[in-house]
């Protein structure tokens, strides 16, 4: 058993309290490899922002949970080397699906876990989440639970249809489980195709406009649990310049559409204090790599395409922090 505290990591408690009070949101970026980790830390240091490093089940399969944990430990030292005196970095399990997995992450040094029982019948979600909270809190680890099911299909995160969070359930859920934060479903979804064209309207230029998030549901939830930290998954905006670059250089993304940044700004100003972004980073890296493969076909040193992909990712994440989530200068 190694405690995250020995690794220089922090849990989400204090950073969420500050984010809710300050009307901004903490970025939660997924990482699977060194370049993504470096880009996230560089962006957080450059903007003086707290940051959540997220490990998904896909990441655990791809990169190995132990290696990712050591990378997160390294991230703290790396942030200091980059000039940040007191980095605030959380190592978080994204979409944990069992008590055993949450325990194994906590024992290895994760400072925060999500137990996603949102697909279970309500009482089973409560029971599972409560078990995780009991174990996690004994180690001063914070827990994110989820109520409501997001639309979309992405690897292990699969929900064929969505169910918005039922505001009448939230008081009972947070009271019975003791969770530290609650992920809700108000119209976001995972991946780069968040809406079908049929769900969208078109503006004067023929550009697809997605249906707005259900801020009415968010407001109802906030009324029931004032000041309680709310989490938004599936919050990539799917930047159309990245999509265009990918497709220009041989990609085949069709009807890729995300959540407009204006709506995320509005959410961040409310009790939403953690915003999950993964797909936008994937798009930024892929656009940079495709462009290099197409324009410099003689290049075969991975550093020559992974390096620019990392730079592009850093720039995108720094921009999210400064201009969308509002967590810059909050260290
Ligand atoms: O919610 C996420 C990770 O848990 C990521 O969402 P996106 O696919 O919108 O980036
Ligand atoms: O929530 C989903 C994240 O975007 C991670 O997905 P993944 O399991 O493909 O790594
Ligand atoms: Zn879920
Ligand atoms: Zn998610």
UniProtKB/TrEMBL annotation:
InterPro entries: Aldolase_TIM, Class_II_FBP_aldolase, FBA_II, Fruc_bis_ald_class-2. Binds 2 Zn(2+) ions per subunit. One is catalytic and the other provides a structural contribution. Its cofactor is Zn(2+). It catalyses: beta-D-fructose 1,6-bisphosphate = D-glyceraldehyde 3-phosphate + dihydroxyacetone phosphate. It is an enzyme of class 4 (lyase). SUPFAM superfamilies: Aldolase. Zn(2+) 1 binds at residues 95, 190, 233. Transmembrane segments: none annotated. Its EC number is 4.1.2.13. Pathway: Carbohydrate degradation; glycolysis; D-glyceraldehyde 3-phosphate and glycerone phosphate from D-glucose: step 4/4. The active site is at 94 (proton donor). Keywords: Glycolysis, Lyase, Metal-binding, Zinc. The keyword Lyase applies. It comes from the Bacteria. One of its GO terms (biological process) is fructose 1,6-bisphosphate metabolic process. One of its GO terms (molecular function) is zinc ion binding. It holds the Pfam family F_bP_aldolase. Catalyzes the aldol condensation of dihydroxyacetone phosphate (DHAP or glycerone-phosphate) with glyceraldehyde 3-phosphate (G3P) to form fructose 1,6-bisphosphate (FBP) in gluconeogenesis and the reverse reaction in glycolysis. This is fructose-bisphosphate aldolase. It comes from Parabacteroides chartae. The lineage of its organism: Bacteria, Pseudomonadati, Bacteroidota, Bacteroidia, Bacteroidales.
